[in-house]
Amino acid sequence: MKKISLTGIKPTGTPHLGNYLGAIRPALELAKDYDTVYFIADYHALTTVHDGKEMAENIHKVAATWLACGLDPEKGLFYKQSDIPEIFELSWALSCFTPKGFMNRAHAYKAKVEANRANGEDLDTNVNMGLYCYPCLMDADILMFNADVVPVGKDQKQHVEFARDVAIRFNKQMGKDVFVVPEPLIQETTDVIPGLDGRKMSKSYDNTIELFLDEKARKKKVNKIVTNSLPLEAAKDPDTCNVFNLFKLFATPEETAALAETYRAGGMGWGYAKGELQRVLERTFGEAREKYNDLMAHPDRIDEILHAGAEKARPIAREHMDKVREVLGYGKSF
Ligand code: ADP
Ligand code: TRP
């Protein structure tokens, strides 16, 4: 039996290079050796998105991104979280095995509290219970489908570790191995992708390069990548340069070595380096962009794929949830 790789992406905006390199690309590479469970974490997005039209559009964008990047919906499971109500049932059960301290330490919640503190606000300002309990829902996502590995960016490592811990606690307390203990899978080379300003690329920092921009719009973004102000003639250090650090993630080893050499030799302007980045990005995403645009023009096709995926996933979730219910003394659902 193959092991299971599972990951989810929150539909909170348009997917960007950080999402692609940190989550989508590694997840799709794992599809060769693992059974896959890849989904749209749409109820997670509800912690911040409270506009139905925007939510629906974001869901289509994330689904179309997975599909355009090569996910085969016939293989493995591909669904949206909100179509599997058993996940929310499990989330409650798991929350009753989760120490409150875990939630206090969860990084997304903590970051919000710290921001409130820095601004002299009440510490609970703009903190809804969804944000606070966010990791419990993520535990249910992961444990429901017996994930062995969870490919994510570094920022999600803590959440996956919570899922590990809760699985171990539950199994131990109930005296039965109901849950597989998952492991986070973080690629060192793509753990934190820099954005336009050199900070972590993130929708929250408004420093993203979206995957399927047309060439003109992407050029505008690439031109905004912050570089140092060394003159054309100066030798430059590729390793500390945001442009190079993105370039090398899409280039062949030969292209990477050649551009590094050009940096060090001096006589290279930033326009050249940015042009090289633009070239490898277009090579990577040009064809997929057509597929993405075509899907986005036909959202009903996306919905059909997601519904078929939920139909496949739900019986598996129901069966697992029934095992949990039986162990807890509720008996099977009917
Ligand atoms: P954002 O920070 O833009 O809101 P999400 O939190 O929705 O992105 O992230 C979705 C997935 O993409 C997660 O697995 C996350 O770890 C990964 N990811 C997001 N940004 C980056 C980044 N800059 N570098 C590496 N991985 C990232
Ligand atoms: N919390 C993840 C993020 O912000 C999204 C997510 C939800 C997820 N459930 C998951 C990732 C389960 C991996 C496994 O990016």
From TrEMBL:
It catalyses: tRNA(Trp) + L-tryptophan + ATP = L-tryptophyl-tRNA(Trp) + AMP + diphosphate + H(+). The keyword Cytoplasm applies. Its EC number is 6.1.1.2. SUPFAM superfamilies: Nucleotidylyl transferase (SSF52374). One of its GO terms (molecular function) is ATP binding. L-tryptophan binds at residue 141. A motif ('KMSKS' region) lies at residues 200-204. Keywords: Aminoacyl-tRNA synthetase, ATP-binding, Cytoplasm, Ligase, Nucleotide-binding, Protein biosynthesis. It comes from the Bacteria. It is found in: Cytoplasm. One of its GO terms (biological process) is tryptophanyl-tRNA aminoacylation. InterPro entries: aa-tRNA-synth_I_CS, aa-tRNA-synth_Ic, Rossmann-like_a/b/a_fold, Trp-tRNA-ligase, Trp-tRNA-ligase_bac-type, Trp-tRNA_synthetase. ATP binds at residues 10-12, 18-19, 153-155, 193, 200-204. HAMAP family: Trp_tRNA_synth_B. Catalyzes the attachment of tryptophan to tRNA(Trp). Belongs to the class-I aminoacyl-tRNA synthetase family. Homodimer. This is Tryptophan--tRNA ligase. It comes from Hallerella succinigenes.
